[in-house]
Amino acid sequence: MDYFGGRNVGGIIGILYTSIAFGTLIGPSAAGFAYDVNHSYTLPILVSAAANMVAALIVVAILARSRTHAVSAATR
Asked: Domain for residue 1, yes or no?
C-alpha cells in the first residue's frame, strides 16, 4: 500500500493473482512439453530460475529507487 495507495490494492491483487493463475495454467504443460522434446527437466528448471532472478532484480531496483526518492524528498 505504500507504493500505490489503499484505493488501488484491489486492482493490484487482481493483476497479481491473474499472473499467478496464468503461470500455474501454462507452466506444467510447458515443462512437460520441454521434457518430451529434450528428455530432461534441465531447460524448464533453468528457465524458471532465470525468471526468478529477473523478478528479484526488478524488486531490488524498485526498492532502491524508492529509497532514493524518499531520501531526496526528505532533504527538500
From this structure: no
